Amino acid sequence: MKKLKLYSRIECPLCEYAEELLQENGIAYEVVDIDDSEDLIKAYHVRIPVITNDEQELNWPFDAEQAMELLNG
Q: How many structural domains are present in the chain?
């Protein structure tokens, strides 16, 4: 099963909202905490939440339709 990656961090209200949107729409995803890596912090610090299918990225704000397109892309 395909999954999106949700680049996020703890105590990020927008990240929590993005995760709720994915859950409510049955979109498979895994959370990647950017605080686990200096490289991820450098890449995503001011951009989170970001979702990716490992080929394309989608920055916030995004909606469920855009997330589904990315998942099936």
A: 1
Place of tokens 């099963």: 1
| 49-56: Cβ within 8 A, 24+ apart | 49/6, 49/7, 49/8, 49/12, 49/14, 49/15, 49/17, 49/18, 49/19, 50/6, 50/7, 51/4, 51/5, 51/6, 51/7, 51/18, 51/22, 52/4, 52/5, 52/7, 53/2, 53/4, 53/5, 54/5
Per-block mean pLDDT, blocks of 10 residues, the chain (73 long): 95 98 98 98 97 97 98 93
CATH number of 54's domain: 3.40.30.10
Q: Model-level pTM greater than 0.85? A: yes
